[in-house]
Amino acid sequence: MWPLRRPTPAPPHKWEGRSANFPRVRPEIKTPLPGPKAAELIARDAKAMSPSFTRAYPFVMERGRGCWVTDVDGNQFLDFTAGIAVVTTGHSHPAVVAAIKEQADHFLHMSGTDFYYSSEIELAERLEARILPGTPARVFFTNSGAEAIEGAMKLARYATGRPSYIAFIGAFHGRTFGALSLTASKASQRRRFAPLLSSVFHAPFPTASRGVTTDQSIERIEELFATVAPPESVAAVFVEPIQGEGGYLVPPDDFLPRLRELTSRHGILLVADEVQSGMGRTGHLLAVEHWGVEPDIVCLAKGIASGLPLGAFIARAEPTRGRLDGERRARGRAAAGWAARDRLESQGRDRRARPWPDACARVQDS
User: Residue 45: CB partners within 8 Å, gap ≥ 6?
Assistant: First the structure.
């Protein structure tokens, strides 16, 4: 097996600075939407692909650079979705592409359950140092955010010996059975899949826009403790520090600190689902950092590798004494994770978010 070092840092690129995310181009529509090539592909897709995919727009992507995407008919759009919070460094950032190519030249796959891989170890060390600083922690890599949630659920049960979980109304944690059992965003996501996992309970997520206070949320959890979910039976509380699927809901400032105090008092693990809110999207690497709260387990995916399918959960060393069996497929994703993390650090996205007015001005000036 070819030993691999950390990917060679890419030289400064013309994208860095002003032109990095706002190339001097504008949206350009050349055909009615969808264009003829896109319409043909959409028709073929309808015959070949599962109807489970909820495509809301007739966009068929051909290529992307930075925050600009072009469809198969040559129409160009400004991409506000970033692959649904995935391409944190922009589409096809040169440093990420270079890391992927370098890794592909060495090898594409190895079995992380049987052998060792230097870039995987180094990325795990880096995540441990940055995600849960100041405390021994362990990293488990996955293929997706849903897998990271499932792994955290298994670890919580294994480590505590307790069967139950608490999550929040409006939450989205994934669509696999365990993650879907925690999810409480839309009834359509659960319809016809019952019964889901038992011993999963939900409390209201506090936010001013929905008229729910921290007191009401904590009182509901206390009510669960007193009636159907005794605290000694609860393995973990799963929470998105900022909800995304339910409408980008920001909790009151006292919510997460009080939730941390409550879980600590009862020996319940606090799991922060940072799959969508993490990797610098809120001005800190993790959204939970805004409130100075230290969870026991952090789940990551999406932006961690800026386009390649990679997830992870990072847990304090005490809970991770339990063993989680599962295939860890490294391929080029650890290298992409290195490159994406380098870009985020160099551009300061894990320290501060660019103010919206400044970002909009840059778009208008392009």
Answer: none
